[in-house]
Amino acid sequence: MSNTIEIVDKDRIVSSPLVSVYMLTYKHEKFIEDAIKGVLEQKTSFPYELIIGEDCSPDSTLDIIKSYQKRYPKIIRIITGNSNVGAYKNSYRCRTACRGKYIAACEGDDFWHHPEKLQMQVDLMEKNSQMVVCHTDFNRLEYTREYKNVHQKSSYTPAQGQAYETLLLNWHIITATSMCRRDVAEGFINSSFHNERWPFGDLNFALYASQQGQIGYIDKSTATWRKVHGSATNSGFSSALHMELCAIECIEIFMNHYPVSTELRIRAIAKRMLSAWRLAYFSGDKETMGKAAAWLAQHNIHIDKKLMMLRNFFKKFSFLHNTHLYIKSRAS
Predict the structure, then answer these.
(1) Are both 219 and 262 inside the same structural domain?
(2) What gap in Å lies between CA 206 and CA 132, rounded to an integer?
(3) Are residues 134 and 271 located together in one domain of the fold?
(4) Is the pTM of this model over 0.90?
(5) Residue 221, SS3 per DSSP
(6) What is the dihedral of CA 194, 196, 199, 203, to 10 degrees?
(7) From the first residue on, what is the mean pLDDT of each consecutive set of 10 residues in the chain (332 residues)?
(8) Is 174 within a domain?
């Protein structure tokens, strides 16, 4: 790829890593050291490499990364360029640079807190040749408040085994906890499901991978997913709405290619349509709000009590009166 510069000590970098870890970073000067240390502190019986994709940050992110590369030349490779290329192309050039049998990822604003994350995942995947992805429980850090073992405290079962239908309903393989086989990642990159228009790459990859083999799960928290203002998942209502609409498009494409029952199809779309409906209100997007309301009415979707608070808001928009959407609350 043009506009790509690699900073690496070719004489000292590990020659045959079993695992390639890639880390995307942009304006992460406050967090990048935590992310790098979490990888460097891994205790493994095998060699691994860390590929850091730095996308021309205007802060000191690159300087921090260079200092670590000089101290750990056997492990760290830096991929950057002369100009910003965006998250999609930065991810692409990092993934294609991976040399290991397995690939793990950690965004520059997240970090690993379990020193045996890689070892546990490799051990599990090496025992099961049908396993294409392995993920774990995680902690959620929202500014100063930390929520530990999120999966253990949630009401849904984490994706594992033949997980395609589970993943259609719940997008819950956190990137920072995941490991996949490199051949599956390469197959995904070369598939039609690798879509540059979508502001994510994890949902479509997880769905693609679930059609290639089994999903493994380790019931231990290994990574901390940090909520940072301005990140892809925390950039305001309009950005969140765009992501939700793209997710609907994504799962519809998969369900067209890999059909499911009519009931499951409606459930999968309805869950995201309800979210899109709510986000459209707060974004002031009347057109999208009306389309979502019409779809919900057409499929007789009951509105969850958590969304009942919006009922009075909708009365402000006369166009909703024509959708014949009757809001009903589920029984307690």
Answers:
(1) no
(2) 10
(3) no
(4) no
(5) strand
(6) 0
(7) 86 98 97 98 98 97 98 98 92 96 97 98 98 97 91 88 95 93 96 93 96 98 85 69 96 98 96 92 92 91 56 45 39 34
(8) yes
